[in-house]
Design brief:
Helices cover 34% and strands 22% of the residues. By secondary structure, the chain is of the alpha/beta class. The protein has one domain (6-191): P-loop containing nucleotide triphosphate hydrolases (Rossmann fold, 3-Layer(aba) Sandwich). It is globular and about 45 Å long.
Amino acid sequence: MRISSARFVKSAIQPDDFPHDRRPEIAFCGRSNIGKSSLLNALTNSHGLARTSSTPGRTQTINFFLIDERAYFVDLPGYGYARVSKKERDHWGVMIENYLREREELKLALLLVDSRIPPTDSDKTMKKWLDHYSIPNIVVLTKADKLSRNQLNNALRKSAEALETRETLAFSAVTGFGKDRILGKISDAIVQ
């Protein structure tokens, strides 16, 4: 899959605000500051498409990006640490869960996990939740460039065990490592 066009369409907080054109959707989920926007930008070859920030919790809405006029990449707010009130974090949780559970257009969720640390309890909960609701998902280990090849292979194996999944993919926004494999999985999900 090669992406030739990508553009921001809208931010939404409730289903009435979501696009209604029935195009397939690929969701990007994970902890705050895990690299969802960086992955989205790398996959689309657009440095500023999704805003990146060093401050966790900047994405506070569900953001829809139209890809090649045929599918949406959907950037979800991160779970975990963010400098917002508990009430606001709880609202995000409900908003994210409702989107993931009820969105018929959703074809695949990419669950991003930091390759440098074992999956957190939040990561494990999210993976179990996705599996419980039969939402197709793939685990993507971010920041792969920070590890040696042996360390990365070990992280991939341990993450797969901890998250009870057969396959994990590694990705680096710095080098582009793993980009083509992820695009291949996205392409497969869109055409199903």
